[in-house]
Amino acid sequence: MISFYFSRLLEIYPFFFTGLWMTCKIAFISLFTCTLLGFVLGVFRAGDNKILKFIIGIYVSFVRGTPFVVQIFIIFFIFPEWGIQLEAFPAALLAMAIMGSAFICEIVAGGISAIPKGQWEAAISSGLGFFQQLRLVIIPQAMRVILPPLVGQYVLLIKDTSVVSVIGVMELTRVGWVTVVRIPEGLMVFSLVGILYFSISYPLILLSNYLERRMAV
Q: How far is Cα 107 from Cα 146, in angstroms, rounded to an integer?
């Protein structure tokens, strides 16, 4: 029986690569979006504007303190009641961007806050504007602190794409559930799903380990 299920799995394996491609699209579009948004929020979170820090702090605390699946349900099922109708794919991208940006915001803010104030003072005394200070002096130094946990967060975000299957996005986990209906051998099916997730996460794990060693030198 196991050999029969395995042969059936081999017949439909292209279906898994379709799900893998969807997972990669969601993951890498979301990574770009949440990195950009997270850096902007992180800069303001580490700044001196108390009002902005408070507002961003509430946003970060809410996102980090609520389950990701609840956030997806709010975007996909509750937003339409407020007149904001989104298809499953853009809803998944929005949810991933909101969730990821909150975590990246804290990583970036922590990295910037780790820079000694003397570096800020030196940049100011050089006549640089605020954004020049960030681009030329602060961010290059802060990246030594930011990069290793940032890449680690990317790995977590890729794995979190599995949650968007709850709203019908045909990504890798959803493909696994659909396949189990046809091939009732869950261990075999989801072992393949796990291997495919591992194939896109492991390079980032290696990169994170390399950066940790590199930045420690």
A: 6
Report the pLDDT value the prediction gives residue 2, as an integer from 0 to 100: 61
pLDDT band at residue 10 using 50, 70 and 90 as cut-offs: low
Q: d(Cα 198, Cα 159) in Å, to the nearest integer? A: 9
How many other CB atoms sit within 10 Å of the CB of residue 70? 10
- From CA 9, how far away is CA 58, in angstroms rounded? 47
Predicted pLDDT at 194: 86
Domains (range + CATH), the chain: 2-216 (1.10.3720.10)
- Which residue is it, tokens 């261990």? 187
Confidence label for 54 from pLDDT (cuts 50, 70 and 90): very high
Rounded Cα–Cα distance for residues 175 and 178 (Å):
5
Q: What's the average model confidence in pLDDT over 174-181?
A: 80
To the nearest 10 degrees (0 to 180), the angle between helices 186-216 and 2-11 is: 60
- Residue 95, class by beta-carbon neighbours within 10 Å (0-12 exposed, 13-18 middle, 19+ buried)? buried
